[in-house]
Design brief:
The chain is α/β, with parallel strands linked by helices. β9 and β10 form a beta hairpin. The longest helix has 30 residues.
């Protein structure tokens, strides 16, 4: 199929825009690759330290040219999604030995759970944990004793941070081995209803806790389509997983077989063999365009609109909000997974999953097929699905049609014609809104503002009965420079109750809500942020705000708005407690949300 013209145009302009930085990046990667396997340049003493604890592998590491894998793991037992990774190193080491290689745990990276810190002070470390992860992974790989890298991570900031590190060491082949989603429990829709009942005061904490534990009940990612599962979709459609690896449950034969197969595959791609395929050749402009298209086609998390630019910068590539918006306009929404529908990711996988989705997008000319992947040249490989063949896997053609058209639909009959992500501009700056779960009657709202500086203040006002009509909730000083840009999920039940009562409600913020913004129109990631004296700092209660998602505009209609002195954030609010004092430099140097909200790429995101 001929490549869609918009996809081609967006790709071409990304290539042109990125040319200086991308050329310099590739020059560095080529120089590192041409130096040859780094272990050969280490002294005997250097190597002895690296191999001292390797037992039966010690001799192979010291005396042969067998390829050695560095495992970077985000394993811990506090994230359900990362608990399964505890068993992965043994599988990887065993699979490596079977084909003459070796593997070592190079290092661990922190991995926090937004579900635990939601609405708590610790959430203010969450976004910047991505950059800590990138740096920690770089420390692990800096020992220069590895011929390839295996990354074990799944959730929100962990995968983007690991990709940033992988790109920085882009002369090495690299593969991501996912843990998979937990099995289905209490449905996401039922869980959301219980949360709304609690927010409305209809049930007590015991009933809420019972529902939450029924929903989050075992190892694996949460089953809704938030940032963690959007990450897994991206790693597959960008060619960093084996085909079909994203949504296999942990603790199954197939999961273990894919982990072993991924290990064997990455060992074939090192500079010691005949098919050297460094990560820098996989993570190119086309791969990032494919990732953005996948995000639109599945209604993925808005967090990736920040993470993808940060990941791309690490590979010398610059993405803009216009790129996302233009691709959204030509990409139909093919999936309905909670919060954009009733299904969870297990249902999505059973309905045809990634193989069928990628096949549909390729046939429509919406993806670049001519890319490099860890599985080999061409994205067409990812239209196949794995099946067990003893303890190993083999591939067969994926499904020819959706198994459930309430979850997955063809390009010829999508849930909606566009991807549902809009770029917002106006006198409040620029940001984004996700519309895939927002009913059309809520795409336009013009209402007075109520201005708040914390989530809790919004919730307290709701409990006090202060919202009695249409309202635009303005929640400011939630950007990366102010307090680290915490998730605002805690508002979702409250705003949903207000909308269910018949009020027109919208949220306008310089913060983020990821994939859980759901049915409430939410203008997110507003830049410049209020802490940088952006327009949000000039909003006052009663100002009339007009949000027109269809037109992509967000404006204050009050004539005196621009002449006001901007408010300042309360001093010291985000400075101390739960480690926040250690992140002062990160907050001071974070780039705008529109450029990835990273302290690693300069004050202006450059």
């Amino acid at each position: 199929m001929t490549l869609n013209q918009t996809v081609r145009d967006v790709t071409d302009r990304i290539i042109e825009r990125s040319r200086p930085a991308r050329t310099a990046y590739l020059d560095r990667m080529r120089a590192a690759g041409e130096a040859g396997p780094t272990r050969g340049h280490l002294s005997c003493s250097n190597q002895a330290h690296a191999y001292a604890a390797m037992g039966d592998d010690q001799d192979r590491l010291a005396t042969t040219q067998a390829p050695n894998i560095g495992i970077v793991t985000a394993h811990n037992e506090m994230l359900s999604a990362h608990q399964p990774f505890g068993a992965f190193p043994d599988i990887i080491k065993r699979a490596a030995r079977e084909v003459g290689g070796t593997a070592q745990i190079a290092g661990g990276v922190p991995a926090m759970c937004d579900g635990v810190t939601q609405g708590q002070p610790g959430m203010e470390l969450s976004l910047f944990s991505r950059d800590v992860i990138a740096m920690a992974a770089a420390v692990a790989l800096s020992h220069d004793t590895f011929d390839a890298a295996v990354f074990l991570g799944t959730c929100d900031k962990i995968v983007p941070g690991l990709v940033m590190a992988a790109a920085t060491f882009g002369h090495l082949p690299a593969i991501f081995l996912p843990g998979g989603p937990m099995t289905s429990g209490l449905s996401n829709e039922e869980k959301a209803e219980v949360r709304k009942e609690f927010a409305a005061g209809k049930i007590d904490c015991a009933a809420l806790m019972q529902a939450e534990m029924a929903a989050y009940h075992g190892p694996g990612t949460c089953t809704f389509y938030g940032t963690a599962n959007s990450n897994q979709m991206l790693m597959e459609i960008m060619g960093l997983h084996l085909p079909g690896a994203a949504f296999i449950n942990p603790g199954t034969e197939m999961r273990d077989a894919l982990t072993a197969a991924g290990t064997r595959q990455i060992l074939t791609l090192t500079a010691l063999g005949d098919d050297y395929r460094p990560l820098c050749d996989i993570l190119d402009e086309r791969a990032f365009v494919n990732g953005m298209v996948g995000l639109m086609a599945t209604g993925g998390s808005t967090n990736l609109v920040m993470h993808l630019p940060a990941m791309a910068r690490a590979a010398g590539i610059t993405l803009t909000l216009e790129d996302f918006a233009d691709l959204s306009q030509v990409t139909p929404l093919l999936a309905r997974v909670y919060p954009n529908g009733l299904a969870d990711v297990n249902h999505f996988h059973a309905a045809g999953g990634m193989a069928w989705l990628i096949s549909q997008l390729l046939d429509a000319g919406l993806l670049h097929e001519d890319v490099q992947t860890v599985a080999g040249p061409g994205l067409g490989r990812y239209t196949q699905e794995p099946v067990l063949d003893g303890a190993d896997i083999r591939y067969r053609p994926g499904p020819e049609q959706t198994e459930n058209d309430r979850i997955l639909r063809p390009v010829s009959d999508p849930f909606q014609a566009t991807g549902g992500l809009k770029h917002l501009t106006g006198n409040l700056g620029e940001g984004i809104i996700k519309l895939s779960a927002v009913a059309p009657e809520h795409h336009l709202i013009e209402a007075p503002a109520r201005v708040f500086d914390t989530q809790q203040a919004v919730i307290d006002a709701f409990k006090a009965g202060e919202f009695t009509g249409n309202v635009v909730i303005v929640l400011r000083f939630q950007g990366p420079r102010a307090n680290g840009m915490p998730e605002l999920h805690g508002l979702t039940p409250t705003l949903s109750v207000m909308q269910d009562r018949g009020h027109k409600v919208a949220l306008v913020t310089d913060g983020r809500m990821s994939g859980a913004s759901g049915k409430i129109p939410a203008a997110l990631h507003l830049a410049p942020e209020a802490a940088m004296e952006g327009p949000l700092a000039r909003i006052r209660d009663g100002d009339i705000i007009r949000l027109d998602a269809a037109a992509g505009t967000l404006e204050v209609l009050s004539s005196e708005f621009t002449g006001r002195t901007p408010d300042r954030p309360r001093a010291g609010v985000a400075d101390h407690g739960v480690g926040r004092e250690l992140f002062k430099l990160f907050r001071a140097h974070a780039s705008p949300a529109t450029a990835g909200a990273s302290p690693l790429f300069g004050d202006d995101g450059a």
